[in-house]
């Protein structure tokens, strides 16, 4: 690692989020619950690390949140923040450590205000004190009440530009790739341990009795969007669930899936749309079976010139998904349980699980 930016990304466990122009990780979600103005229960507060970097756009694009957000500067280049109140008043701040030059080490943006930011690369060269480094701004954010995606609103390009003058300079760049469009429009969240992005879209309100499960009750079913993406690992790492799951292919590159039954039997499928080549449009994963998947980037199926590879899937789990029903095997467990077959599964084992004993 030759740059502080890379050290922070590795040591803090930051994950890329192109729609935010950088990397982030949620570090704390208060277990204390409060009720917001609408009577909905919310976490008292949440905290994140956020690292803006020129590699992923270098801008925190215009958006507003219902909660107050306080930003704390840590390291790197200063960042210029533009804040617009609901009444249209625009203010600018430089978040940084050089208070003699007007920087503020801390900035609170009230709920309901639009905010946008960018790294100060070209405005004042004196800020660039780090020769040969990749520009970045490392910030902490505390939000209260705690962050919830439904409270977040991104400024649309079609909104009144004259009223929003001063902040439209930060608008999202033109989306050139379907992958980015899916991530933004479907509100997909990066989950590195899953090798891609996901979003739970429905959790049935109907409850059923499952006596053999921990807790005894489960919702009828849950559904998610899931996108495998190479920049996040490009693999749906080996895991099993007590419930049956069905995968449905939507768009992008096909994905190769391996199923490992409890008796050691292995089956392989290609989830994709070209049924003439043996693809399957839907794939059922029986409860208790291990599954692993990978995006087929280099094979002949990758016929989307100049696009970023991705595989967009829906997954329905019934009875509904609960984290306590999920099992991720370690490499040691795979070797001892499947001494003859584990080599076929090795590439699908999560990096963290490969280190476990």
UniProtKB/TrEMBL annotation:
Residues 8-154, 183-325 form the DUF985 domain. Pfam families: Cupin_5 (PF06172). InterPro entries: Cupin_DUF985, RmlC-like_jellyroll, RmlC_Cupin_sf, YML079W-like. CDD domains: cupin_YML079wp. This is DUF985 domain-containing protein. It comes from Stylophora pistillata.
């Amino acid at each position: 690692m030759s740059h502080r930016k890379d050290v922070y990304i590795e040591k803090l466990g930051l994950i890329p989020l192109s729609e935010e122009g950088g990397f982030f990780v949620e570090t704390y979600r208060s277990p204390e619950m409060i009720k917001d103005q609408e009577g909905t229960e919310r976490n008292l507060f949440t905290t994140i690390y956020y690292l803006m970097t020129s590699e992923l756009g270098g801008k925190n694009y215009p958006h507003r949140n219902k909660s107050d957000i306080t930003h704390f500067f840590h390291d790197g280049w200063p960042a210029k923040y533009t804040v617009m109140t609901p009444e249209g008043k625009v203010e600018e701040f430089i978040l940084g450590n050089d208070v003699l030059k007007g920087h503020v080490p801390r900035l609170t943006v009230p709920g309901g205000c639009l905010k946008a930011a960018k790294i100060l690369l070209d405005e004042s060269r004196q800020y660039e004190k780090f020769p040969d480094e990749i520009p970045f701004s490392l910030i902490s954010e505390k939000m209260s009440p705690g962050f919830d995606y439904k409270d977040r609103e991104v400024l649309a390009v079609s909104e009144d530009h004259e009223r929003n003058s001063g902040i439209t300079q930060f608008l999202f760049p033109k989306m050139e790739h379907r992958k980015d469009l899916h991530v933004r429009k479907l509100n997909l969240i990066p989950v590195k341990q899953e090798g891609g992005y996901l979003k739970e879209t429905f959790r049935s309100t109907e409850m059923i009795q499952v006596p053999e499960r921990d807790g005894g009750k489960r919702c009828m079913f849950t559904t998610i969007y899931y996108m495998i993406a190479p920049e996040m690992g490009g693999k749906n790492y080996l895991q099993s669930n007590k419930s049956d799951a069905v995968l449905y292919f939507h768009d992008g590159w096909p994905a190769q899936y391996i199923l490992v039954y409890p008796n050691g039997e292995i089956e392989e499928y290609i989830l994709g749309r070209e049924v003439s080549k043996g693809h399957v449009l839907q794939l059922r994963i029986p409860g208790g079976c291990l599954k692993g998947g990978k995006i087929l980037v280099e094979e002949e199926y990758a016929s989307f010139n100049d696009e970023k590879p991705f595989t967009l899937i829906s997954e329905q789990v019934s009875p509904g998904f609960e984290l306590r029903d999920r099992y991720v095997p370690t490499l040691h467990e795979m070797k001892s349980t499947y001494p003859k077959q584990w080599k076929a599964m090795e590439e699908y084992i999560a990096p963290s699980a490969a280190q476990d004993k």
